[in-house]
Amino acid sequence: MKKRLPGFTVILAAAAAIASVAATGPRSATVPMALDHMRMTVGIDVHKPDGTWKQVRAWVDTGGTAVLVNEPLARELGVELPAQGAGAGQTVTTEIPVPALRLGGVLLDVEGMTLAVRPGKFPLPGIEAECVLPPRCLRRLHVVFDYPARALTVAGPGVLIPRGTAVPCRVNPETGLFMVEAVIDGEKVALGVDTGSAGTWVSDKLTAAWLARHPEWPHAAGAAGSTNFFGFPFEAKGVLLCLPALAVGTVSLDRELAVLGLDQGLFDWYSQKSALPVAGFLGAEAIARFRLEVDFPGQTTWWYPAAPTVGRDLDMVGLSLRPEGDGSFFVAGVVSRNGKPLVSGVEPGDRLLKVDGLEVTGASMGRVVDALRGKPGDARLLLLERRGERLSVRAIVTRLP
Q1: How many whole angstroms separate alpha carbon 75 and alpha carbon 329?
Q2: Which of 137, 238, 299, 331 could disulfide-link 350, Cβ–Cβ 3.0 to 4.6 Å?
Q3: Segment 303-329, tens digit of pLDDT
Q4: Does domain 8-155 sit in CATH 3.30.9?
């Protein structure tokens, strides 16, 4: 891939500007966060080749490893994409260094990182952002993921006075991914902490063992609600259940937690970027029940409980959705119980056009999933397209799993 390099004078000016920020910038900063499908986005500043700073929307994904940018931002940063373009949904890797990034004036760690590009408007389908911010950029900082206040704080080590219950964590020094030890059904389980995933995923070895001991626990097949990530094919085969209790250190979750049990191989892959092997990861639906602080260099977390929210994650029409780069949504799967689908008249592969009055195309993942939620027994009118024909389906909100 070709790359456009700025002139030597611009390089010197950019280096001087960055050095000035590092020397005179704030020791801490707090910025507002937005949540959509429990995914956190914040405004960050990107240093452009012409020496100016541009504010963009970044998805904070503590389970990711790359600074991934959308195509328009990539072009502003001097990235020349292949003439033929990448295939649909394919990420383009480059050798171009990640430019300086700052959050509220605090410089982030981009040393040794190179840009990755996703052709199209969004870095990933269904997420209203221009880039992805991985934990590698936060690994030298003390970070507060304040979900109750809808704010993100970054600070140098020792600047903040922590609040909440301290729980040790392990941090991969290269990727910045961090993990904690949880207790589920009396057993210790190593889990990543993944703000980028709306929901919690665990190994199907765990779900099988839990259901063997507790056959009375309701369960189903297929992702829904927070456990519906991007509608990957394997999501439709996952074991959907709700855990009655989970503890992180001495901190207990205050209500049931939806989890999706998936093949252990997925977590073998995830473990390669984690500090130690994990059997799953806590998603944002669990994390957002707290004001979570992470001292990355000190490998310590603090958990401060938030007020309970109203509503239930899995009271909804039992569909798993797949967002596409063009803003469209397709049905990736239909949740089933005892081998029977819980939504009649909908098939995998159907394009979802409307949920009641919501025009789905171009909407965010969070808005579409929320439109499927409600009180058990409520009806949702779905407008679908199948093989070029449109059809309407009256779907009932169900208490899953």
Answers
A1: 27
A2: 331
A3: 999 887 778 999 999 999 999 989 999
A4: no
